Known about the structure:
This protein is of the alpha+beta class. It is 35% helix and 23% strand. The chain has two domains: 6-121, CBS-domain (Roll), CATH 3.10.580; 125-193, GMP Synthetase, Chain A, domain 3. The longest helix has 16 residues, at 127-142.
Amino acid sequence: MRHRSVADLMTPNAVAVQPGTSFKEIARLLDEYGITAVPVVDHENRPVGVVSEADLLRRHTSKDGPSTAEAMMSSPVVTARPSWTAVEAARLMERHRVKRLPVVDAGGRLIGVLSRSDLLQLFLRRDRLIQEEIREDVVVRILRLSPAAVHIDVDEGLVTLSGTLESPELAPILVQLCESVDGVVEVIDRLVAHEDEGGEGSA
């Protein structure tokens, strides 16, 4: 399975401002691009902070000190790498309670921005694509089962698995693998194990 990475989901060529950018210019950019925060970068395009709508409102209310990006920004900035999985980025957002992550290259330079709405794109994958990935990658390639062994029904990201498996140990493995597929919201297990026909009393 190939999980979509931060590079797949991020907005490239992100809007950014310099430390000296004014309050009004930042407010204009947020409105023009429909975003809630903007990274602040130095002369080498390395993020040094983030200015959010909340930062602007706080500055407007306090009117304390200069109204530049450098004075208003939250710092140090929390960044992501393009090779990270969506899960890694989501965990970082949750840990630091941020809604957007500047994405940087190996040199620490800004190459994009990942937002919560970008991550939600994972759950907008078509059911047919999820079904195909489970059948081809999980059932056939990883578990080496016949594609006919498991019936896979996907409805709005809800996956229902049914069918008869040769071993009862396979069911939890299959469920866990399906849960890790991009776009899967929940997995319902209706799998059964193949009955041993060689027990006592068999002719």
